[in-house]
Amino acid sequence: MRISSYRFTTKGKKKVSNLDFIHFQELKDGWLGIVCDGVGDGSENQNPAKLCSEKLVELFEQIPEKDPLEMLKVVIDETNKYFNNLNQNNAFEKKLASTLVILYLTNHSAYWGHIGDSRLYKLKNGRLNILTKDHSVIQQLIDKGFLTLKEALLHSGTNVIGRAIGEKVNVVVDVSKINLQPFDKNRFLLCTDGVTQILSDSEIEKCLQYFTVEECAECLKSLIDKYDVPDDASFIIVDAY
């Protein structure tokens, strides 16, 4: 499987420091991408998103080979325990918490896990598909029929999340997988809510329809700059052949 990827992160106009963190790397048997968004205030020297990503990578490399979905559950659960330990021991001034979305590509399959409102999209036949569901107050209201999708976009509580690494002793993580056709071009987008709060699905879809990941990234970056994004905005685009 051949991989082409591009990453980007920028500090929000209303933020003191960038509390997003993104990482990807080639593995001996595939590719790993991680996007995390630190919850609350903080500094780059005390960035929960960076700690979350680094711990995930460390655990991913240590755990013996097993079913990829089970492996994702284990590394995320262990990362949550690590955060809880830091918080209980008051290792940092403020409670540490982070959203995350992690994508593992191997053997013509895509495996992912997520907590919070960072998202994973896939472009299929030129159409955008969201593979994750936000763990947020707004999504709960939508699921229960109290808000329509249009109303949700205007709601003041769009950034209130219901789950995050480090928030509780036990964390519920969503994991899933899809099989990739070996001769198809599979394009994925991992991103924080700093992107999805300002860009519509149609705008994201249009950008992802460009031929190369570099062209897609330039399209997204120009829109982020145009809208003067208030929150940190980060994304990874990856093509798998």
Pick out its properties.
single chain, 241 residues, alpha+beta, Phosphatase 2c, domain 1, five-stranded antiparallel beta sheet, 10 strands, globular
Please explain how this structure is put together.
By secondary structure, this protein is an alpha+beta fold. It has a single domain, classed as 4-Layer Sandwich (Phosphatase 2c, domain 1), CATH 3.60.40.10. It is built from 7 helices and 10 strands. The strands form 2 sheets. The protein has a 5-stranded antiparallel beta sheet. The protein has a 5-stranded antiparallel beta sheet with strand order 2-3-4-5-8, covered by helices on one side. Strand 4 and strand 5 form a beta hairpin. Helix 1 (48-62) packs across helix 2 (68-88) and helix 6 runs antiparallel to helix 7. The protein is globular and about 50 Å long.
Task: Tell me briefly what this model is.
By secondary structure, the chain is an alpha+beta fold. It has seven helices and ten strands. Helix 1 crosses helix 2 and helix 6 (201-208) runs antiparallel to helix 7 (213-226).
| Total number of distinct structural domains | 1
Q: What fraction of the residues are assigned to beta strands by DSSP? A: 25-35%
Query: Rg from C-alpha positions?
Result: 17 Å
CATH topology: Phosphatase 2c, domain 1
Structural class: alpha+beta
Order of helices and strands: EEEHHEEEEHHEEHHHE
Count of separate DSSP helical elements: 7
Total count of strands: 10
